Amino acid sequence: MYNRLKILYQLQQIDNQLDELEDLRGDLPNMVRELEEKINGFIKDIEVKEKEQKESITRRAENENEIEKLKENQKKFKAQLYQVRNNKEYDALTKEIDHTEEQINKLEAENNSLADRSKVLTLEIEEITPKLEELKNELKEKEADLKEIIKANEREESKLLEQRKKIESEVKKNDLSSYMRIRKAKKGLAVATIKRSACSGCHNIVPSQRQLEIRQNNRLFYCEYCGRILVSSEIAEETNK
User: Fold this and answer.
1) Which of 168, 177, 178, 218 is the most buried (most CB within 10 A)?
2) 86 occurs within a structural domain
């Protein structure tokens, strides 16, 4: 059991050092992620607007072709007006001419609306583009800063990760599960020691009888206030030699 407790404390010590290295990166990892999300959002926005513009161009071209056909038909109808033999034929042709004119006006109005929308999209893209470039430059700087920090501590971090892997393999499955659960809930600190009769994690006083039991190093004890695993100062001192 002594070794079981010692291994848990060693694991915590290594994780503390890894956390310190992580802290050196500050908020850079989050900043990089946020910048990437913003950049992807702008890129997607531009892609949507450019797609709408392309669809607008295609639609306007189709409308122009249809307008040309309608105008040709209108010319034919007007020419036929001079060949009508009665009012019924005249009224029928006039109706076709008016209907054709309505279709032409409708398509031209749609094209004008599409052209106006395309201009708005162009302005929006022109407004987004410099912002996108600015974010890309900022991301490049933050990534360079983060890379520099990671590189400076790469050897130490690699060494610690190797040690952690070795120690973790020696931890009992149930102990590791409890350790990880507590560590996640308690901001990284799962194993605490007794300092001045108090839990080093939450600083609440540990009863004298419980302190004596913890010093025996014959079972796992948890702080009744914060739930952290408690180990004796003897284990901490031996590990920190």
Assistant:
1) 178
2) yes
**One domain for residues 94 and 138:** yes
Of 213, 24, 40, 147, nearest in space to 230 by CA: 213
Rounded Cα distance between 67 and 200, Å, is: 83
**Residues 6-44 pLDDT 10s:** 999 999 999 999 999 998 888 999 999 999 999 999 999
Range of the domain at 106: 28-154
CATH number of the domain that residue 110 is part of? 1.10.287.620
Q: Which residues sit opposite 191 in a β-bridge?
A: 229
Q: What are phi and psi of 153, to 5 degrees?
A: -110, 10
Tokens of 132: 């996108």
- Give me 70's structure tokens: 């309608």
Read off the pTM.
Answer: 0.69
Number of domains into which the chain is organized: 2
